[in-house]
Amino acid sequence: MSHMNTAQTLEPIASAHKRLRLLSYNIQTGIAATRPHHYLTHSWKHVLPHAQSLENLNKIARLVSDFDIVALQEVDAGSLRSGFINQAEYLAVRGRFPFWYCQTNRNLGRFAQHSNALLGKIRPTHVSEYKLPGLPGRGAILARYGDADTGLALLMIHLALGSRARLRQLGYVSELVNAHKNVVLMGDLNCEAHSPEMDILFRNTKLREPAQCLNTFPSWRPTRNIDHILVTPTLEAGNVRVLHHTFSDHLPVALEITVPNDIVLPWHSETPQCADNY
Question: Are strands 139-145 and 69-76 parallel, antiparallel or unpaired?
Answer without folding.
Answer: unpaired
